[in-house]
Design brief:
Helices cover 9% and strands 41% of the residues. The protein has helices at 88-93, 114-119, 184-192, 283-286, 320-329; strands spanning 4-5, 12-17, 24-31, 37-42, 45-48, 51-53, 60-67, 75-82, 97-103, 109-110, 124-134, 137-145, 151-159, 164-170, 198-203, 219-221, 224-227, 235-239, 244-247, 259-264, 270-271, 274-275, 291-297, 302-307, 332-337, 346-350, 353-356, 376-382. With 383 residues, it is mainly beta. The termini are far apart.
Amino acid sequence: MQEVFCPDFVPSHQIFTLPAHPDVYKLVVRSKGAVRYATLEGEGFCVEEIHNYFEPFDAAVHVFYLRKNWLFEGKKLTMHYRNRTKSRFCAEVGRYAYTDFLCSMEGIRDENALIDEICDTGIVAESSVEHPLAEGITWTEVTGKDKGGLPMKWFYFTVKYGKGTFRCGTANDGTAPNEVIQTVEGQAQAVVAKGYNVVGATNADFFDMFADNHPSGPVIKDGQVITNGDSHRAFFGVDKLGEPVIGDFRHEPWLKGNMKEAVAGLQRILKNGEFGDVWPSERFCSDRHPRTAVGITAEKDVIVFIVDGRLPEHSNGMTLYDVAVQLKALGAVNAINLDGGGSSTFLVKEGDGFEIRNFPVDARTPGVVGIREIFNTLLILAN
């Protein structure tokens, strides 16, 4: 394998302390090209990355957790890039590339201290209207503002425990592991055609929209693993006893083989009532975007949440911390972030059909036609 040295793509970086792990630093590196995989090498160590997020696909954030003795002022590190997506970066430098950079220990921050500074945009609700869908199932539309007075709009379903259930929707309700995609409404209609009483739906997993549409995490429907059965990605679903679950197979291995339906996300933004993976130092988390998320309350009610964004006159999006704050205020103790951006779609049953109640940003972008087709959906079924 031949790698190309790229001095023009030297990344920027920042270092954070982790209060719970005093002997570990968190190194956040922002590269100038959209690459999915990266490896960090220094004198005597080589660390595969743990997280990498990129949005809107022209920059990448790479996160490494390093022992204290692996970092010191002026240490030269090498970043090796691997790519499996189409990007300007790899078109310019080839599939494999590396750069060297000097690791500065100046300005080290406590990451937790950044939450209010970076992530809390001070969003407050000004009006809220709840609409019934079925016994124990409602949808709510909320209008508000952030601390700068910018408009906000978000929506959520509330499904009381035992009053509804969930199904993983796929294109034509099929079981193809990738490539086939369909809008949220198309996937809902495919399930309705089989006799299910679908009253609401949202988008679900992240997927590779620039290649074969493969979803990023486990997809399970009717107890069958469609794809990514060994993925460590977190997911929301219902187990074979009908209980709502947020988990992953790495930390909850007992869930493997016991899930009836599951759609994956990534960040577990609430964990047992506390803020979780809101990662203020990473742009994907601290920038404001359209978002889709799911929370579970202590009473096992489920809240499916969507916020509009990237439409300044309508709604300006939320950070992951903002989403966690809103879900926690609604009673959620555990919550997961699903795919967002142009995928975020809030579909509600209206009479014999469906209505999209939010403003999917793709449908409001010049040159983009209609609602985004996606790999899978989270369908809400009334009993």
